Amino acid sequence: MISIQMGEIYRKSIHVLGGIIPLSYYYYFDKTFMFDSLVILSLIAVILEYLRLHYAWVESIFESIFGFGIRREEINTVTGASYYIVSSLVIIFLFPKNIAAPSLLILSFSDTAAALVGIPFGKHRFLDKSMEGSIAFLSVSIFVLLYFTELHIIFIVLTAIIVTLVEAKQSIINDNFTIPMVTAIMLSLIGVMIR
Asked: Is residue 1 part of a domain?
């Protein structure tokens, strides 16, 4: 029977909701407002992570609220949510809006698609993930780049392929950081090349 754990659905729902950050930046807020807001959120996340990892009573409260969506490997380390917030701060600080927004949206939407397709339907291995999940990641990435950039389709597909490879290969660096960073670097390099 094909299934996906409710914890993973909860996790990916949070991932999709994280898309509020780049969407609100793209459509409504300027860089200063977003940066200042993310500095505050990042500080809160870092303090919470420190307290959670060093004080059992904080960990107990944290798990009672968020434990449903925490992966086993995150119990004794920093959670993906904190990486996402800090990653958003770094990407928005380093890159212009037209690069930062799609880079973070690929993290929110493509990574979610990869998990929701790859976990229940993944039958064929591709690097460290599944071919089915990687195809979902690639497809959604192409769609995001088509909508949020004005690049030629060749550059869109090339960027999407490279980011898909990054997502599919396990790294010592959390993919909540590597996915948007590689996307933003690729979009920046392409922008320089076609000027």
From this structure: no
